[in-house]
Design goal:
Chain lengths: 199, 193
């Protein structure tokens, strides 16, 4: 009976041998005490090597790693890796605030443009003594109820068509404000002394 | 809850997810420090090198390509650092590192009342002999044995880490284990009694 090569036996002892070679070595070990002795000796060596223990990291290791990464980040990227999640949340919140501020700004600027253009139109109308068709159509809207003291819609229209603006300017303003109130109800502000327009 | 794979975590780190980096750090801090501890012996240096590994993982995150296993990549970085440290600081390590194998505070030796002082000293001697036997191996054999025996890395993966063929790894391990068997023969005989 011929013994196996030492390399083959050691490979088997340390699980470096794949099938079917491992089965062949196993079969040989069953009938060869010398080869079996070599494999057993390496089994004992494996157990002996296990006695060498290595300690793990000391407390504070993680913190030092984080610190090193943070320092590296600050040097090269100018922002914190661990602050990234927090920064992402902050960025989203900021975006929300910006959008809200933009909406408010837009509504206010739109309101002032609308008011000044209406005023210009009214002045022009006063000068000519006529109303534009758009103004008339707006005033004829059947869904509008203006002024608690006056009659809704029709009364205002009657007054306007009569061409006397001296007492009806406030009615026209209230009707224009109505449009704003319909879209931005919470943001609309009627001038003091004015009644709120009801839908 | 399913355990996230290293690959998934690393891909998220690549996208800037700090929480995933934390998971990887917790998962591999012990294997890394103990690997370096056996490679370079000195605890402070081992932790510095392990820290450097994590820093390099972070630095390379944007270039990370999931071609090889994450641990292959991790141990490749670690092994290069360890071998460079051994070469660069060979004299320094041998001059400064203590002869004690545990490297822990002296008081720690007397904290546990169960093993006697004698037993602990004997155990310390055995560990020192094992350590010296492994440290006496050529660099590649030493890295291969520590990866295979203590880090439980498969020989195919060791081939990827050391950038050699699988048969070369088998050969490295064969020679290393055979040398260790010869060097530690007295302890092996002692264990048989």
């Amino acid at each position: 009976m011929k013994c196996l090569e030492t390399e083959k036996l050691i490979s088997y002892a340390y699980h470096l041998t794949d099938e079917p070679e491992a089965s062949q070595v196993r079969a040989h070990l069953g009938i060869c005490p010398r080869c079996r002795g070599i494999v057993e000796q390496h089994g004992r060596l494996g157990a002996l090597l296990d006695e060498w223990k290595a300690p793990g990291p000391t407390p504070g290791f993680d913190a030092r790693v984080r610190q090193a990464v943070e320092a590296r980040q600050a040097r090269h990227e100018g922002r914190s890796f661990w602050a990234w999640d927090w920064a992402r949340g902050l960025a989203l919140a900021s975006l929300g605030v910006l959008i809200f501020a933009g909406v408010v700004w837009f509504s206010r600027s739109h309101s002032s443009v609308s008011n000044s253009s209406s005023l210009a139109t009214r002045k022009s109308s006063q000068a000519s003594g006529t109303q534009t068709p758009a103004q008339v159509a707006k005033l004829q809207s059947p869904t509008v109820t203006a002024r608690p003291s006056g009659k809704p819609g029709q009364a205002a229209l009657g007054t306007i068509t009569a061409g006397t603006f001296s007492n009806e300017d406030q009615d026209a303003q209230a009707l224009e404000d109505y449009d704003l109130a319909a879209n931005f109800d919470l943001l609309s502000e009627l001038p003091k002394g004015e009644s709120r327009v009801v839908n | 809850m399913a355990i996230e794979t290293d690959l998934d975590l690393m891909l998220r780190v690549r996208d800037g997810d700090a929480a995933s980096f934390e998971v990887l750090l917790r998962r591999y801090r012990l294997p890394m420090v103990s690997y370096f501890r056996r490679m370079v012996r000195d605890q402070g240096l081992a932790e510095d090198l392990a820290q450097e590994v994590f820093l390099r993982v972070y630095k390379s995150r944007e270039r990370y390509q999931p071609e090889a296993r994450f641990t292959t990549w991790l141990y490749r970085i670690a092994t290069n650092l360890a071998l460079n440290a051994i070469r660069d600081r060979k004299d320094e390590i041998s001059a400064t590192a203590r002869d004690d194998s545990d490297g822990g505070p002296i008081l720690e030796r007397f904290v546990d009342p169960r093993p006697t002082v004698e037993q602990r000293l004997m155990q310390g001697d055995r560990e020192r002999l094992i350590r010296q036997a492994i440290e006496g191996l050529p660099e590649n054999q030493r890295a291969a044995v520590i990866l295979h025996k203590y880090q439980e890395v498969d020989y195919r993966q060791i081939a990827g880490i050391l950038s050699v063929s699988e048969s070369a790894v088998k050969s490295l391990l064969f020679r290393a284990y055979e040398t260790l068997r010869a060097r530690l023969e007295p302890l092996l005989r002692e264990g048989q009694l």
